[in-house]
Amino acid sequence: MRGINRVVLIGTGFVGSSYAFALLNQGVTEELVLIDLNQEKAEGDAMDLNHGIAFAPSPTKVWFGDYSDCENADIVVITAGANQKPGETRLDLVEKNTKIFKGIVDQVMSNGFNGIFLVATNPVDILSYAVWKFSGLPKERVIGSGTILDTARFRYLLGDHFNVDARNVHAYIIGEHGDTELPVWSHADIGGRPILKIVETSDKHTKEDLEDIFVNVRDAAYKIINAKGATYYGIAMGLVRVTKAILQNENSVLTVSCLLDGEFGHKDVYIGVPAVVNRHGIREIVELDLNDQEKQQFEHSVDVLKKTMKPVSTLQ
Question: Which H/E stretch holds residue 107?
């Protein structure tokens, strides 16, 4: 054991550089390596980040590196790949990014990597499955960002609606990180009070309000992409949250993309579900008792992902 945490970031575009900035600001790791095809950009990012070290909560060594730095990495975070364009769904990116990922994962593994992959590139569920296949690592050690951002958006909008701190809202978005995701209303609560009960007994809040909140969560990315070209701050902070849970062995419950092996009645698909995350990766999946409607919606999400990932499922 080296006793020093090293994170290797592959891809220093909008999401990658925002993740690196958030990671430095929270002092989560001792070493951060930046890898990108655009060497000049990544070198500039490393220099820029290093100039902020004096203001960081703890020292972090940041440098532009290469795939040989993966040998001693605890986590390899992949944010590289083609971005989602206006009018394009996350699933439209499958073929482009699968090819890119094959090359990336082969280079990481050929340099002796034996840590945890954290995948953020879209479509994240399918690309997490591809990384698992390409790497040969145990499923526990390949994690996608899943619906961690959707869940954060959900908690924020519910907190805003009910005028409560979002950190005290307990509610999950599960399923595909995309158009077929679903809210788990049956397990949503604020301070232990079920949100559906709050609405039933209120003359200020309605079920229509809740539906509007979910639609705004589901479609948030499209609005942000149309407004500013890409989403990156929220997902970057979500990735830092997962990184922290891993490196600090937190056993935190986060809605990440992981491989189902019988949980929720499904197998051989990466999808966003609550899972306990620690230093070993996914300790266990938290299998929620879904109601009939939620089961149907989740099944639909699984079906859509399985159809889209058919070309990927045969890859080795």
Answer: helix 94-110
DSSP 256: E
Structural domains of the chain, count: 2
The amino acid occupying position 67 is Y
Domain of residue 55, CATH code: 3.40.50.720
Q: How far apart are CA 79 and CA 117, in angstroms?
A: 11
Number of neighbouring beta carbons within 10 Å of residue 75:
23
What pLDDT digit, counting tens, does each position of 90-111 carry?
667 788 889 899 999 999 999 9
Q: Is the pTM of this model over 0.85?
A: yes
pLDDT in tens, 16-73: 999 999 999 999 999 999 999 999 999 999 999 999 999 999 999 999 999 999 999 9
Residue 72 token pair: 């001693």
The answer to whether 280 is a known catalytic residue is no
Are 105 and 163 members of one domain?
no
Selected catalytic residue, list 177, 187, 266, 300: 177
Beta bridge partners of 281: 278
The residue range of the domain holding 102 is 6-144
